Amino acid sequence: MLDQLAGARPAVTDALPAEVDDALDGSKEPSAARPLFSDLEAFLRRYLAPVVERRLTVGAASGVNWCPEWWQHPEAISRLYALWRAWETLRAADPDTGMSIWWRDHFDPHFAVLTGEYGPFGKCSPDRGHVATTPLPLTPAPPDVLAQLPDAEL
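Structure for DUF4913 domain-containing protein, as requested:
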Protein backbone atom coordinates (compact mmCIF):
# COMPACT_ATOMS: atom_id res chain seq x y z
CA MET A 1 0.00 0.00 0.00
CA LEU A 2 2.77 2.45 0.88
CA ASP A 3 4.52 1.66 -2.39
CA GLN A 4 1.34 2.57 -4.28
CA LEU A 5 1.02 5.86 -2.40
CA ALA A 6 4.66 6.71 -2.98
CA GLY A 7 4.21 6.29 -6.73
CA ALA A 8 0.88 8.10 -6.90
CA ARG A 9 2.33 11.54 -6.37
CA PRO A 10 5.67 13.06 -7.34
CA ALA A 11 8.12 13.69 -4.54
CA VAL A 12 8.35 17.29 -3.33
CA THR A 13 11.85 17.47 -4.73
CA ASP A 14 10.59 16.61 -8.24
CA ALA A 15 9.05 20.10 -8.39
CA LEU A 16 12.22 21.85 -7.24
CA PRO A 17 15.22 22.94 -9.27
CA ALA A 18 18.28 20.69 -8.79
CA GLU A 19 20.22 23.28 -6.77
CA VAL A 20 17.36 23.59 -4.27
CA ASP A 21 17.05 19.82 -4.00
CA ASP A 22 20.82 19.52 -3.43
CA ALA A 23 20.81 22.27 -0.82
CA LEU A 24 17.99 20.65 1.12
CA ASP A 25 19.27 17.07 1.05
CA GLY A 26 22.76 18.05 2.17
CA SER A 27 24.52 16.69 -0.92
CA LYS A 28 26.28 20.02 -1.31
CA GLU A 29 27.80 22.02 1.49
CA PRO A 30 25.63 25.10 2.13
CA SER A 31 27.34 28.44 1.66
CA ALA A 32 26.77 30.79 4.57
CA ALA A 33 28.15 33.68 2.54
CA ARG A 34 25.96 33.30 -0.54
CA PRO A 35 22.17 32.84 -0.62
CA LEU A 36 20.77 30.05 -2.76
CA PHE A 37 18.24 32.45 -4.28
CA SER A 38 19.22 35.77 -5.86
CA ASP A 39 16.18 37.68 -4.62
CA LEU A 40 12.75 37.39 -3.03
CA GLU A 41 10.90 36.66 -6.27
CA ALA A 42 13.30 33.84 -7.13
CA PHE A 43 12.66 32.34 -3.68
CA LEU A 44 8.89 32.59 -4.18
CA ARG A 45 8.86 31.20 -7.74
CA ARG A 46 11.47 28.49 -7.37
CA TYR A 47 10.83 27.30 -3.81
CA LEU A 48 7.78 28.58 -1.96
CA ALA A 49 5.14 28.39 -4.73
CA PRO A 50 6.04 24.82 -5.80
CA VAL A 51 6.27 23.53 -2.21
CA VAL A 52 3.36 25.16 -0.35
CA GLU A 53 0.07 23.31 -0.77
CA ARG A 54 -3.01 25.10 0.53
CA ARG A 55 -6.57 25.27 -0.67
CA LEU A 56 -6.89 28.82 -1.93
CA THR A 57 -10.05 30.86 -1.61
CA VAL A 58 -11.83 30.96 -4.96
CA GLY A 59 -15.33 32.39 -5.18
CA ALA A 60 -17.30 31.46 -2.07
CA ALA A 61 -15.16 28.43 -1.15
CA SER A 62 -13.24 28.37 2.08
CA GLY A 63 -9.47 28.34 2.08
CA VAL A 64 -6.59 30.74 2.46
CA ASN A 65 -6.52 34.11 0.77
CA TRP A 66 -3.62 34.66 -1.62
CA CYS A 67 -2.83 37.68 -3.74
CA PRO A 68 -1.16 36.98 -7.09
CA GLU A 69 0.11 40.58 -6.88
CA TRP A 70 1.74 40.01 -3.47
CA TRP A 71 4.19 42.84 -4.23
CA GLN A 72 1.30 45.36 -3.99
CA HIS A 73 1.17 44.78 -0.22
CA PRO A 74 3.98 46.43 1.81
CA GLU A 75 3.41 44.08 4.76
CA ALA A 76 3.60 41.06 2.47
CA ILE A 77 6.89 42.26 0.99
CA SER A 78 8.33 42.68 4.48
CA ARG A 79 7.09 39.32 5.78
CA LEU A 80 8.00 37.35 2.65
CA TYR A 81 11.45 38.95 2.61
CA ALA A 82 11.90 37.99 6.26
CA LEU A 83 10.82 34.43 5.41
CA TRP A 84 13.34 34.21 2.58
CA ARG A 85 16.23 35.55 4.68
CA ALA A 86 15.36 33.23 7.59
CA TRP A 87 15.19 30.28 5.16
CA GLU A 88 18.64 31.11 3.77
CA THR A 89 20.12 31.54 7.26
CA LEU A 90 18.64 28.36 8.75
CA ARG A 91 19.47 26.28 5.67
CA ALA A 92 23.13 27.22 6.04
CA ALA A 93 23.38 27.34 9.84
CA ASP A 94 21.57 24.12 10.70
CA PRO A 95 21.24 21.60 7.85
CA ASP A 96 19.78 18.97 10.21
CA THR A 97 16.87 20.83 11.80
CA GLY A 98 16.93 24.29 10.23
CA MET A 99 14.09 23.61 7.81
CA SER A 100 11.85 22.24 10.55
CA ILE A 101 12.55 25.32 12.65
CA TRP A 102 11.87 27.53 9.64
CA TRP A 103 8.46 25.93 8.96
CA ARG A 104 7.38 25.99 12.60
CA ASP A 105 8.78 29.32 13.79
CA HIS A 106 8.78 31.39 10.61
CA PHE A 107 6.59 30.14 7.77
CA ASP A 108 3.52 28.98 9.70
CA PRO A 109 2.97 32.19 11.72
CA HIS A 110 3.78 34.57 8.83
CA PHE A 111 1.70 32.66 6.29
CA ALA A 112 -1.26 32.54 8.69
CA VAL A 113 -1.16 36.32 9.08
CA LEU A 114 -0.62 37.03 5.38
CA THR A 115 -3.45 34.78 4.20
CA GLY A 116 -5.88 35.19 7.10
CA GLU A 117 -9.19 37.01 6.95
CA TYR A 118 -7.72 40.20 8.44
CA GLY A 119 -4.27 39.93 6.86
CA PRO A 120 -2.96 41.83 3.85
CA PHE A 121 -4.33 39.22 1.42
CA GLY A 122 -7.71 39.05 3.22
CA LYS A 123 -9.71 40.53 0.34
CA CYS A 124 -7.59 39.16 -2.50
CA SER A 125 -7.86 35.83 -4.30
CA PRO A 126 -6.46 34.17 -7.41
CA ASP A 127 -9.75 34.71 -9.27
CA ARG A 128 -10.46 38.29 -8.10
CA GLY A 129 -6.80 39.32 -8.04
CA HIS A 130 -5.46 42.18 -5.96
CA VAL A 131 -7.72 44.31 -3.78
CA ALA A 132 -6.06 47.42 -2.34
CA THR A 133 -5.91 47.80 1.41
CA THR A 134 -5.94 50.92 3.55
CA PRO A 135 -2.95 51.80 5.74
CA LEU A 136 -3.50 52.04 9.48
CA PRO A 137 -4.85 55.48 10.40
CA LEU A 138 -2.44 57.55 12.46
CA THR A 139 -2.71 60.80 14.34
CA PRO A 140 0.69 62.46 14.80
CA ALA A 141 2.03 61.95 18.32
CA PRO A 142 2.69 65.06 20.39
CA PRO A 143 6.41 65.97 20.55
CA ASP A 144 6.49 65.61 24.35
CA VAL A 145 5.38 61.97 24.04
CA LEU A 146 8.10 61.22 21.49
CA ALA A 147 10.69 63.07 23.61
CA GLN A 148 10.18 60.50 26.39
CA LEU A 149 11.52 57.72 24.21
CA PRO A 150 15.21 56.88 24.67
CA ASP A 151 16.05 57.24 20.97
CA ALA A 152 14.25 60.55 20.49
CA GLU A 153 16.08 63.20 18.48
CA LEU A 154 13.86 66.27 18.45
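Residues 74-93 form the longest helix (20 residues).
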